[in-house]
Amino acid sequence: MQSPVQKCMVALLLLGLCNARKGDPTNRSRNVLLIVADDGGFESGVYNNTVIKTPNLDALAQRSLIFRNAFTSVSSCSPSRASLLTGLPQHQNGMYGLHQDVHHFNSFDSVQSLPLLLNQAGIRTGIIGKKHVGPEAVYPFDFAYTEENSSVLQVGRNITRIKLLVRKFLQSVDEKPFFLYVAFHDPHRCGHSQPQYGAFCEKFGNGEPGMGWIPDWKPELYHPDQVQVPYFVQDTPAAREDLAAQYTTVGRMDQGLGLVLEELRHAGFHNSTLVIYTSDNGIPFPSGRTNLYWPGTAEPLLISSPEHPSRWGQVSSAYISLLDITPTILDWFSVPYPRYSLFGKRIVQLTGKSLLPALSLEPKWRTVFASQSLHEVTMHYPMRAVQHGSLHFIHNLQNRTSFPIDQDFYVSPTFQDLLNRTQAGQPTHWNKTLRSYYYRDRWELYDHSTDPTESHNVASDPRYAQALEELQRMLLKWQWETSDPWVCAPDGVLEDKPVPRCWPLHNEL
Ligand SMILES: *[C@@H]1O[C@H](CO)[C@@H](O)[C@H](O)[C@H]1NC(C)=O
Ligand SMILES: *[C@@H]1O[C@H](CO)[C@@H](O)[C@H](O)[C@H]1NC(C)=O
Ligand SMILES: *[C@@H]1O[C@H](CO)[C@@H](O)[C@H](O)[C@H]1NC(C)=O
Ligand SMILES: *[C@@H]1O[C@H](CO)[C@@H](O)[C@H](O)[C@H]1NC(C)=O
Ligand SMILES: *[C@@H]1O[C@H](CO)[C@@H](O)[C@H](O)[C@H]1NC(C)=O
Ligand SMILES: *[C@@H]1O[C@H](CO)[C@@H](O)[C@H](O)[C@H]1NC(C)=O
Ligand SMILES: *[C@@H]1O[C@H](CO)[C@@H](O)[C@H](O)[C@H]1NC(C)=O
Ligand SMILES: *[C@@H]1O[C@H](CO)[C@@H](O)[C@H](O)[C@H]1NC(C)=O
Ligand SMILES: [Ca+2]
């Protein structure tokens, strides 16, 4: 029997890590702290919202490279987290939709995830907050306080509890480097699960009767008149009130982030830890979460490296995918991606890239891909998309069916307001109609250089014919490279033998 330490040494030797660490004259240990917001967006000072108070995010940004063109590859919680932790899009890692309850999606058993690879390389791993991925064997963590064995409100929204758990993790680290993943449940909606705490759980722990108390939280309240209504949300009293509640919850997360970073500093890891802040999917408003439009996929992304101060506080325009996070963290730890296949002989390859070079020099990255299949199990609405510079192209594989609405968003004040106004024939003050939201063109192409709000679909404009063809080609190439089972949909059937190819259905699509 080998002791865990011996096993680790063997693993390290196999990966050539022991040599690398010995050969490194500074022998500095390198750690990673990954902080992920749940349904967080651009409600922060660093992203130029001038109303909301997010002093801790803003301070982190002063020690970070700030990305303005970062995108999730999928606008749904479990699929996004699985993609973040594997570097593989949802259609390749198997997490096609939500993990919990009846939805029951899981990644394939043989997927080699980031926590698994880091664990094998002798790096201590921890997760605090919302995990929402499985199976356990694919996503193992040495230290885990998640919804699987705690209350998600406590480990995901109670910032005092989170602070104490981070402290516990940091006190228990040995000489090994660590990867700590703090996954806030804030600022996710609450109306569907715990309406007593408000639409965004903005009252949870505020000290009022029945709300409990979070000792470290000083709630910031906002008046509905104050909020900045994004272009994709209707400007009505109901939506403004919804946004004001969201701001208060973002404020709790911001204060939590401050506490987490203070724990890191206090434990002496401030100068050896790569800190990454992002969110899993767009905000839960129309065109946001569950959509591949800009509001559904654009994410905040701050990367703070103590070793790369030259670009601190700068804003990068490079196009970044959250599929790049796994390659970035592997690069930081010098852990190679293994050679293996999931099905058949095809070797799994990461299509993302390490973002570390961007910390020194502005890169020319211009292309990101996206892929969504479901959210809830009933919400099959496959979409594939590519952004290349200012062009955003979306393929709605099954556009003849109505775009599905999830349970959580359905009961939200903003969506109820849209339904009520539409039913009553009142002005919605919305940029879309329910009809146009439910029924979409199969091909959507938006040119951000002239149309930043994605209001005009130019897919059938002859001036974009060549660009459209090129984008379709790029997208299909990526689908083949990432073994997308939907690659032939909606007008063909994929047959793997003798060589994978699409056979026509003649279904007039
Ligand atoms: C590198 O640091 C580790 C942990 O502090 C220590 O055990 C090891 O001896 C150091 N190696 C060298 C070559 O200094
Ligand atoms: C915020 O606005 C300023 C001034 O327009 C701009 O220079 C900066 O890049 C913006 N920041 C982000 C993150 O977009
Ligand atoms: C949750 O699991 C971790 C081990 O992963 C364990 O240390 C911790 O005590 C558990 N917490 C609860 C509340 O059961
Ligand atoms: C938050 O956690 C702290 C520390 O565990 C606890 O004292 C407090 O009661 C919790 N607050 C709520 C609202 O659950
Ligand atoms: C922090 O790390 C950087 C790069 O490794 C080093 O140059 C700097 O001296 C360190 N600062 C402190 C206060 O240790
Ligand atoms: C779906 O896309 C096709 C092709 O662009 C279009 O003709 C049709 O109107 C779209 N919508 C529906 C509901 O079929
Ligand atoms: C929508 O209408 C229902 C039924 O009349 C009402 O109960 C609800 O408060 C309304 N919600 C909004 C946000 O207008
Ligand atoms: C949506 O709103 C934006 C900003 O107000 C505007 O530029 C755009 O033209 C609007 N789109 C539609 C379809 O009305
Ligand atoms: Ca989410």
UniProtKB/TrEMBL annotation:
GO molecular function: N-sulfoglucosamine sulfohydrolase activity
Cofactor section: Ca(2+)
Residue ranges of domain Sulfatase N-terminal in the record: 30-334
Extent of the signal sequence: 1-20
Keywords in alphabetical order: Glycoprotein, Hydrolase, Signal
Residue runs in coiled coils: none
Gene Ontology biological process: glycosaminoglycan catabolic process; heparan sulfate proteoglycan catabolic process
Record family assignment: Belongs to the sulfatase family.
Name assigned to this protein: N-sulphoglucosamine sulphohydrolase
Gene: SGSH
